[in-house]
């Protein structure tokens, strides 16, 4: 019977990143998908700064940035005029190596991940369908339908459901998927166009007429349009063509559509699964949570799920942790998914709600308040951290402990860059490591060396102060580059206690 450490159902970005991370660490995986080929339409576009930081660990960031388009600013339009401009490049300049929104269409994205996975000897098994599974104490027995129609039994230590909103894995677990569906019908179109919004930036129309967002694509004169269909035509989406959707918002943005390359309609849902783990089976990405497209968070959140789970599965499979480490996956990711659904729901409702009060808020108050808020550094930073997912943290959760400076256990490691040093360079090591900013004691150096735990020591600088780090403190980093322990005294006893209390060993 074919056996793997982890069987991954679904070969979208979430499943592919999970397979890639695990394969790089020597974990045997199978990844299968019921479709006959990778997607050929762009679908999800936005790659956030935090995803690029995590991709840097996998040596993917340069390829994504080089193959896509950097969006330096977002523009809000009201009554056919630009009303506010938010410069992303300057807001995030000191926070991340990637102070922009990266546009990298999902078809390109998946092809890159497939290519990298193939380089590690793993092929996506296409036209292969999950029929059912049974969980045991140490394995999961799985029944598959193969491309030729025959059936196959296989087993794995763990099963990962990355198979989308209609997840077969979630249904097989009988996990509820509470939430709802927004009343608006959305359309998406990839177009060739001209006009003011085709300047390489993001443009959003907030008029009462229709919601419309224009996302630039790589190349000249190419864009993705996302808009609403508000009238009776929404009752029969299967009959709609681009010519049928309202042109009011397009006219307000002074956009001339020259050619439509792709057009589709869809409904937007907001749901979070009741459980992300049952025994040896896990839910990730859209199988676990779906939400509005506000802020371009969906695909990025699924990728975050994959990286969070990957290092934990690796720890357990390599005997470096007890199985209960895997319970921290639903604790950490469900909390974020629920916050995200609530936040994007509020933004989505604001942008698309009907009625005179909603129109007043969008067309009169928002264009005035947003630029004024953006004038304050803290407000700009909060906005960028939220949308880019740099602000995501696991504070007050089982794997997070301590505080040193303004950095707490569970935080993303702050980025510190000088002419000589970039502290994110060390994060290409896909394992535990210790950072000290200032001086490290001989005791700490010897303790880390004895355990083959990488120790990175960076000279103290003004950049460290600005990042909120504490001088000479110890920061223990998880394999996904979040701070596990922040210890101001740099005590080796504190690190020893951290690992022993959680049944962990560094690798």
Automatic annotation (TrEMBL):
A molecular function GO annotation: monooxygenase activity
InterPro entries: FAD-bd, FAD/NAD-bd_sf, RIFMO-like
Domain FAD-binding, residue spans: 4-343
Keyword Oxidoreductase: yes
Keywords of the record: FAD, Flavoprotein, Monooxygenase, Oxidoreductase
Annotated Gene3D superfamilies: 3.30.70.2450, FAD/NAD(P)-binding domain
Cofactor(s) recorded in Swiss-Prot or TrEMBL: FAD
Domain of life: Bacteria
Protein name: FAD-dependent monooxygenase
Originating organism: Pseudomonas qingdaonensis
């Amino acid at each position: 019977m074919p056996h793997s450490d982890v069987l991954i159902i679904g070969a979208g970005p979430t499943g592919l990143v999970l397979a890639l991370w695990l394969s790089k660490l020597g974990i045997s995986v199978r990844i299968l998908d019921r479709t006959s080929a990778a997607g050929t339409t762009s679908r999800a576009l936005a790659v956030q700064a935090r995803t690029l930081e995590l991709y840097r660990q996998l040596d993917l960031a340069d390829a994504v940035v080089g193959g896509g388009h950097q969006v330096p600013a977002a523009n809000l339009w009201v009554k056919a005029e630009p009303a506010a401009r938010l410069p992303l490049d300057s807001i995030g300049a000191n926070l991340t190596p990637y102070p922009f929104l990266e546009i990298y269409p999902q078809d390109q994205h998946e092809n890159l991940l497939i290519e990298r996975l193939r380089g590690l000897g793993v092929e996506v098994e296409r036209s292969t369908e999950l029929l059912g599974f049974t969980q045991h104490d140490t394995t999961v027995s799985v029944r598959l339908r193969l491309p030729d129609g025959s059936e196959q039994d296989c087993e794995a230590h763990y099963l990962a459901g990355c198979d989308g909103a209609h997840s077969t894995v979630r249904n097989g677990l009988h996990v509820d998927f509470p939430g709802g569906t927004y009343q608006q019908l959305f359309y998406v179109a990839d177009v060739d166009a001209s006009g003011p919004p085709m300047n390489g930036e993001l443009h959003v129309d907030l008029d009462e007429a229709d919601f419309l967002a224009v996302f630039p694509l790589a190349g000249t004169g190419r864009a993705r349009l996302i808009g609403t269909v508000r009238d009776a035509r929404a009752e029969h989406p299967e009959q709609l063509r681009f010519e049928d959707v309202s042109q009011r918002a397009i006219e307000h943005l002074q956009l001339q559509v020259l050619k439509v390359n792709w057009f589709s309609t869809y409904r937007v849902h907001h749901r979070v699964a009741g459980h992300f783990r049952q025994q040896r089976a896990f839910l990730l990405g859209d199988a676990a949570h779906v939400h509005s497209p506000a802020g371009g968070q969906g695909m990025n959140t699924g990728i975050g799920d994959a990286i969070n789970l990957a290092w934990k599965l690796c720890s357990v499979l390599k005997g470096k942790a007890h199985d209960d480490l895997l319970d921290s996956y639903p604790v950490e990711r469900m909390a974020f998914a629920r916050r995200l659904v609530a936040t994007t729901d509020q933004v989505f409702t604001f942008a698309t709600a009907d009625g005179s009060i909603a129109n007043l808020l969008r067309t009169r108050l928002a264009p005035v308040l947003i630029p004024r808020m953006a004038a304050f550094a803290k407000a700009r930073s909060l906005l960028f951290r939220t949308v880019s997912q740099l602000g995501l943290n696991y504070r007050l959760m089982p794997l997070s402990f301590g505080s040193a400076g303004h950095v707490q256990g569970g935080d993303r490691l702050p980025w510190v860059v000088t002419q000589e040093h970039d502290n994110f360079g060390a994060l290409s090591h896909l394992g535990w490591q210790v950072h000290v900013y200032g001086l490290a004691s001989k005791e700490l150096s010897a303790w880390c060396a004895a355990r083959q735990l990488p120790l990175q020591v960076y000279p103290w600088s003004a950049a460290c102060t600005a990042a909120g780090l504490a001088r000479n403190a110890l920061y223990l980093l998880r394999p996904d580059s979040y701070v596990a322990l922040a210890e101001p005294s740099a005590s080796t006893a504190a690190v020893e206690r951290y690992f022993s209390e959680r049944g962990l060993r560094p690798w």
